[in-house]
Specification:
The structure is a single chain. The chain is built from 13 helices and 8 strands. By secondary structure, it is an alpha+beta fold. Among the domains are: 24-73 and 151-249 and 354-398; 250-332, Nuclear Transport Factor 2, Chain: A (Roll). It has an 8-stranded antiparallel sheet with strand order 4-3-2-1-5-6-7-8, with helices on one face. Helix 2 (26-56) packs antiparallel against helix 6 and helix 9 packs across helix 12. The model is unreliable at 398-405 (pLDDT under 50).
Amino acid sequence: MVEISGEGSSLMNVVRRIYEKPRSFAAREWLFQIHLYAGLAAAVYAVVVGLTGSLLVFAPEIRDWQVKDLLTVAGSGPHIPAEKVVESVIAAYPNATVTGLGLPYSAQSTFRASIQSDGKRGSVFVNPFTGAIVGKRGPELNQDFLAWLDDLHINLLSGPTGRIVNGAGGLALLLLCLTGMVVWWPGQKYWMRAVSIRWSASWKRVNYDLHSTVGFFTLLFTLMFSASGAYFVWPKQTKALVSIVSTVRPTETAAIPLHPGAQPLPLSRLLDTASRAVPGSWLEYVSIPNEPRRALRVALMSGGIRDYPSVSNVDVDPITGEIVKLQLATRRRAGESFLVWLNALHFGNFGLVMKCLWVLMGIVPALLAITGFLMWWNRVLARKLARMRREPRLGHSTGQLHDAA
């Protein structure tokens, strides 16, 4: 017969009490207070970021629709070399710098050159058969409603300070998720009540059930959104934290030695070199360095359009054609894969059905903020207001008695 020591027996009793009667622990009440006031502090943030996130789920498709007449052209035959595309763009916009080139993803797709001039960015669309400029889209796309919405979602319309506040809000949501898991657990006998909504009950009970049930079933989504939001604000710190468990290698473009007086190889040759390094993938984008000590980076995808977790990066020395850094999607370490998927999951680029689900998930933080606020109003503020209304009446009655005496 196995004998349980006193300490082991005490631990088992604590676990049993948490499992059966969680409300009997004082720590649960502390966590409830943290959950309550952290929720109140982050309520407006949750509503703004959640709803703007939902509206931005289809932003890439909306952007493509805005330039739909520039994305494809009629024609057939071989595509011109990539270096000819760059030459065509430079000839058309001599004061601009070409910083990158999006490669065609189909036979009739145009090249999409990224340019920068006077601190402003734009895109130039080039016919893949003739090299003719199809059209240009520039700063006007950075000043429309979608750009304003994006700035509100990322920077809270307040620049770098707003982005830091956004990251702090993400951490607050993370805290709400962790404390909410503890506060939600009602005990073994009543857990079914915590995952159902009694629509026939009073509106206060329905509100409570909505908060509890929706919070439970969307917990993983909210955890992901909050963690990825903090990651976008503090990428270096997040990578350092993840590296404690699994090393995350640097992702910056590789440095190369100087080659004074040497001319770069044709861009098409460099792309061929990168393509051979990742067989079975298609060329998606090439970043063209403006610093002599930086390599040229080629991004290749093995999946469909915007399948970013399938991206492999190849850094090539533009002078020698030598591959100086290779980051294969199939050879990521666990921590690197975690960060790549954390990034991808935030945007939900996994087809129409998943995007629609992400729109709904973006509404969840707002729903939880509103139902949580109503619970606080009913339980705390409404009672305080009622007491305040009663106390003057009581004082007035007491004064009358004294006057009568």
